[in-house]
Amino acid sequence: MIAPPLTRLAVSPARRALAAVGQFCAQNDMQRNLRTCVDLIGGAARRGVRMLFLPEASDFVAETRNQPAELAQGLDGQFLREIQQAAKDNGIWVSLGIHEQPLTTGMPFNTNAVVSDDGTLVSVYRKLHMFDVNVKDGPRLQESAVSSRGERVADVVDTPVGKLGLSICYDLRFPEISQLLRQRGAQLLCYPSAFTEMTGAAHWETLLRARAVETQTYVFAAAQIGRHNAKRSSYGDAMIVDPWGVVVARCSRNSSEPTLAVAEVDLDYLEKVRREMPVFDHRRTDLFPDYAA
């Protein structure tokens, strides 16, 4: 299996542009999920959206421990190729979560792939933190048993809506990544996710708004929602948060039907927030130089 090369594009973002997050309930049927993704891409493009963010595991949500390895495709696989074609056909950028089959042996990566409006694969981020938890009366999951962890923070990506930093779901609980991405120039952060019902109700919005406030970035959180199978369901509540921590768009939690939430990214407003509250200028990097490097 040969990985397609990544292409860094020179992109000048508009000062104001529309972006969207998508929400749907993936199952272990990749063709069904692909049709849903393509429909959301087309729907976003018709609304004038420049970049669409789709959830973690947009390709499939497994029913068994064996399925991630059985169903995962490489970056040159049919699922991602179809997404690239849909992005090109609709003239829209797309970020989405997929299971990525590694080039060598091993478990698949939990990957955030970014595709440009000409269908080019421009960035790939592999989830760093594995969701291994055992919450009393709540979820018992061991992601490390079915996924390989990534080993690097991806470079910030130039997009039509701003400079984008990539993470995935459980990474949201580790602010070191978002701080590093902001330091590298990120104006936007994305967290394609599939939060559990319990952890979503407890922490989802709080964490997203905290990351937005801390980094003074727009935060895009596409989400899985509803019952995927007999053993697993997701919280939903896909949303967009602005650099002041305000939720400016969100999808309904009342339905697991595919939906979009759209908001304007205003880079002048972002700069105003950073100028009036210059928290990055006030950091005591003399006391934590390694963290702030």
UniProtKB/TrEMBL annotation:
It comes from the Eukaryota. The keyword Cell cycle does not apply. Keywords: Hydrolase. Its EC number is 3.5.1.6. One of its GO terms (molecular function) is beta-ureidopropionase activity. Residues 17-267 form the CN hydrolase domain. Coiled coil: none annotated. The keyword Hydrolase applies. This is Carbon-nitrogen hydrolase. It comes from Coemansia guatemalensis. The lineage of its organism: Eukaryota, Fungi, Fungi incertae sedis, Zoopagomycota, Kickxellomycotina.
